[in-house]
Amino acid sequence: CSMATKFYQHALALAFAVHEINQDPQILPNVTLGFHICDSYYDATMTYRSTLDLLFKSHQFSPNYKCDKQRNLIAVIGGLGAATSSHIAKLLDFYKIPQIIYGSFDLQELKTTHYSSFYSMVPKESHQNIGIVHLLQYFGWIWVGIFAVDNNSGQHFLQSLEPLLHENGICAAYTKRLPYIARLDKMEEHIEICYSIYKQLKNDIHVVIIYGESLTIAALRFILTLGGIENEKLYFKKVWIMTAQLDFMLTGLLRGWDLQIFHGAIAFAIHSEDTPNFSEFLKTINPHWNKGDRFIQVFWEQAFDCFFPESWEQTEVMGQCTGNEKLEDIFKPLFEMSMTGHSYSVYNAVHSVARALHDMCHLTGICTHHPKIHHTVLNAWEVFDLWFCDTKSILFVMSYYVVVSKIIFIYITPFSPLNKYLLLVQKVGKVDPNAPQGEQFTIDESMLVWHPGFKQVPPFSLCNERCRPGCRKKKKEDQPFCCYDCILCPDGEISNSTDMDDCFRCPEDHYPSNGRNTCIPKNITFLSYKDPLGISLSAIAVSFVLITILVLQIFIKHKDTPIVKANNRNLSYILLISLLLCFLSPFLFLGQPEEVRCLLRQPTFGILFSVAVSCVLAKTMIVSLAFLATKPGSWMNKWAGRRLPYSIAVSSCLIQASICIAWLATSPPFPDVDMHSAHEEIILQCNEGSVTMFYCVLSYMGFLALASFIVAFLVRKLPDRFNEAKFITFSMLAFCSVWISFVPTYLSATGKAMVAVEIFSILTSGASLLGCIFFPKCYIIVLRPGLNNRKHLLRQF
Q1: Quick one: average pLDDT of 440-444?
Q2: What is the pTM of this model?
Q3: What SS3 state is found at 296?
Q4: CATH code linked to domain 532-793
Q5: Around Cβ 297, how many Cβ atoms within 10 Å?
Q6: Domain 5-124+335-400 has CATH 3.40.50.2300
Q7: Where in the chain is the domain with CATH 3.40.50.2300?
Q8: Neighbours of 513 (CB within 10 A)
Q9: Helix (H) or strand (E) segment spanning residue 76
Q10: What GO terms are given for molecular function (predicted)?
Q11: Average pLDDT in the 44-62 region?
């Protein structure tokens, strides 16, 4: 017969624990523990028979009767699988004998059968499921296949795992049931199911979760070879995620299997500790170590591929067992020298029973030599009612180990081949739900060795390519939520990580990059002195200032000449000074907007230009009134005095000044920030406060200019050699054209351009006044001085 050689360590762990307890006088003085191991044969009938043997059989079998020499059964360590433990419980529950579970399966499955005598030595399966989710999320695997053994355990696993995957954004591409196989020689009975599973595994899903029992790995290996070894290597580049219920084991008959297909598998395992002296204990094991061990010869033959002379099963290729073979020479899929997780649970189960007996002994005195209590019989339910008061958590502390079964230690183990028949098992991480937040799942990715067939590591396991930053997910109709299209973010929005459900807008002081995957801080901008445009405008303004000063000097130097005296010399001085200040006013517009600068620049500009235009209007009125006053009997004589032009200039300026004062008093300009007009810039600007008042200033200045233009146009042909009306007409025409163009241009501009437009309009309109009015006079004064005399002035009269 064949056996799972790796499971023999479970029996040895039991023997080692009992031997260790019996050798320690501090645990059970005057009491010797014994044990009996029965095989369930993965068969319900044989499981019931073996359980009855434990309960009633001594030298003869008497069901439901206990004879004098009957053993005193305190506890039973149940089977590795849920089905075996359930069969045992149906009999033990009648006699209130507890069953300690060392197999890693969900106790909820057994609780549904209403058996109450279960005590688990392993972590909860729900914590393992959380660990699977953490593992998938860590590597970004959201499109996975699931295989679960076709029994109640597999059903419970799917019912708990699938909702958990959905809650965490992970999809099961398919869910298939593996045939439940208690014996490997029964595989042929499920050949059709195996072929359908084989076809399913040929898809391009790289991550597959496997839930099964002891022979599931062997069954899976059988399925993978259905297409031949070459096809197997071609198709099955998978990351196998195996649960703790699985044990990567082979029987002795399968020692020659090529195991490279499982390269890179990740398996969850029950936490185990290095128990002192266990490895040394295993080295003492030989075919004759214990006469009561009925499993040793079968194990030895399977493990070392040999036979004993008395064995009925012999082949020509098998050599005879010498008994000198060493367990440490067996490779791990057959047997391990370090204590496995399941063996560690068996070991702890024995110690938990011993500790319960220890406490009972101290309470009742059973362990003493007192004659009155020497023949007292221990009842199993009394022992465990005392000790296991909480069936959800078992905690006990010995001198050299601590076990807290309520805390989960699940270790992730990758398999990587040393050769195609041998696997190397390494511990790479753990899951501990009781650890601090952020430390519950740990993994050392550098220790993982992936299947060499993957082009990219870690491999992808997605329904489709991830949506890159700059795009968002759009669900595909009639597809799982893990399957989606990727669409570009709308204008003005970004996504800064992969697989975002929605795009979002940048903060006001940032703008989206061209790839719509990040927010870039906006540049703070204003028209500064260091800006090329600011430098150019400053240079032009300074040039006009110098020219104006030069003209003013020429006029002052030749103040007594007829051409300077004509049309009121003092008004010319006032006009030149106002133009000089107008050319300096652009410097209030340059630089970072500040409160004082914003308060002064528009009112200053409006008042200065009003003074200039008022002087032009006064000069034009002088020409008109002077001509009319020269006619005999004209009523204009009394209006043509010296005070008239000053009265016109002052009254015009006072009106503009009143408008500006009202503006500053009601809604003054202030520094402001414009984050929306420019896509990539934050504009520092002066908010005009009341736009209405700003346009009132411009409108009044336009009114003065228009009045000057009309009057100048009417008197442009008067017979006067030094008549300025012609030049004023041209200057006012240019002035009005500039400011009429200014309004739509100013409204359509933003940021620096808006300020530059206003500065340009100030300089252009000021230059038109300076050039048209004063350039002809300067030309005569400097280049044609002969024309600058009274004789020439009166020649036409």
Answers
A1: 83
A2: 0.65
A3: helix
A4: 1.20.1070.10
A5: 16
A6: yes
A7: 5-124+335-400, 125-274+408-447
A8: 15
A9: strand 76-77
A10: G protein-coupled receptor activity
A11: 73
